[in-house]
Specification:
The strands form 3 sheets. Strands 8-7-6-11-10-9 form a 6-stranded mixed β-sheet. Strands 3-4-5 form a 3-stranded antiparallel β-sheet, covered by helices on one side. The chain has a two-stranded antiparallel ribbon with strand order 1-2. It has 2 domains: about 1-60, no CATH class; about 65-140, no CATH class. Helix content is about 15%, strand content about 40%. The chain has 2 helices and 11 strands; from the N terminus they run βββββαββββββα. By secondary structure, it is α+β, with helices and mostly antiparallel strands.
């Protein structure tokens, strides 16, 4: 990821910090020597373009749960509840009802839950028939 801080520009590899289960996620941007250059948290108020660039960098760095199957998808007042299976095990997460998965340049879908965790469906057409049926509104 290319960053600018205090007028200094540099490439900065992205490292997501643990634990992922915490609502207060932070990402560490590092020098090539692995020294921290910047710590970015949810309270930093990134503009939409910067947040998208950071999401893309985190996704490409592999700090994303990969969805292998969508088990169920429920809509409630103001939220959408996802029941999925991932390579890391079964998960249940929520997204705002008006927030839709983002299509990635490679055709995959990237989903950010209300806690800031990222979920990726690499190829929506390659999942099982039930998953495709539940995802049809997103991949139209």
């Amino acid at each position: 990821m290319w960053t600018i801080r205090n007028g200094e520009e540099r490439a900065a590899p992205v490292r997501r910090l643990f634990p992922w289960s915490e609502d207060d996620h932070h990402v560490s941007l590092r020098h090539a020597s692995n020294e921290e250059f910047a710590l970015v948290g949810p309270e930093d108020g990134l503009d939409e373009g910067s947040r998208r660039a950071l999401d893309d960098a985190v996704a490409s760095a592999g700090f994303v749960l990969e969805v292998t199957r969508v088990v169920d998808l429920d809509e409630e007042i103001e939220i959408r509840v996802w029941h999925v299976e991932t390579r890391q095990g079964p998960r249940v997460f929520q997204t705002p009802l008006d927030d839709w998965p983002r299509e990635m340049p490679d055709g995959g879908l990237l989903i950010r839950d209300v806690a800031g965790d990222l979920y990726r469906i690499p190829d929506p057409e390659a999942v099982d028939a039930r998953s495709r049926k539940l995802l049809w509104a997103f991949v139209g």
